[in-house]
Task: structure prediction
Amino acid sequence: MSEENQNQGEVVELEEEIKTENDGIQISNDVVAVISGVAVSEVPGVAGMAGGFAGGITEVLSGKKNLAKGIKVEVDGTKAKIDVNIIVEYGSRIPDVAFEIQNRVKKAVENMTGLNVEEVNVHVQGVNTDSAKGENKQEEVIETEETNEEE
Result:
């Protein structure tokens, strides 16, 4: 009985400290942009990123590929909004490419940073037609080889 009386008389106060996953951690917008850039580069149908003139000059002079090129990131607390500017391959279905970019960027950023991605806006800045021209040239070469064999 003496033990019960002692336990009843004691008031144990537990201070519960609730911490979120990112307390004290600040993630740079550039880091989120690089993560997004890597995710976008893995999507089939993307010919490249559409960046500004300054980004292209920096890439040429440094010799390094800028993985954040064409990506604008806004982080507000634990929420992120990402704008992606791309150039698509000729013949790719643009809505499918854009949807895949949105899914991959959201998944990659949320998994790696713990941020809640609210928006991934895809802006198509152009279409790369070099691959279409290359296919036409290959067809012409095959046709000329066939006509030479017949003669």
Notes: Residues 147-151 have pLDDT under 50 and may be disordered.
